[in-house]
From TrEMBL:
Gly residues bias spans: 16-26
Keywords assigned by UniProt, alphabetized: Membrane, Transmembrane, Transmembrane helix
Transmembrane segments: 33-66, 78-104
Highest taxon in the source lineage: Bacteria
Span list, region Disordered: 1-26
Residues in DUF4190 domain copies: 33-95
Short name of any one Pfam family annotated for the protein: DUF4190
Protein name: DUF4190 domain-containing protein
InterPro entries in the record: DUF4190
Amino acid sequence: MDTYATRTPHHPAGPGPGARTGTGGRGGNGLTVTAMVLGVAALTTSVVVIGGPLGVVGLILGAVALRTAGRTGTGRGMAVTGLVTSAVAVVVSVLVAVLVLWYADHTQKCYRPDSFHQYTQCVRDQLGGH
């Protein structure tokens, strides 16, 4: 077995202190990647309210990943991205849920129309448009 480490005894086999391994210098641990992926997935699904629960999980994992990144020095950017996208997803999901509930409350008289035209006319009347 002829390797660089065996030919030069003053160099230890393996990475030296401060060397990054396994991440290509781009990240840290699996939590940072998971937090970022969950944050982005939550943000893209937040308009159908599914992003809210995903965002909560992303916030938790992002906070843990940020703490871990503070100790290890890697993955801070992805952890912050996961936190921010998760937080925005939660806010958007809450706003969508509030909007849907408001709409349902203001148009509840229109839920049994005979036709779509009657429904749209009823909704206009209920929301104040003519």
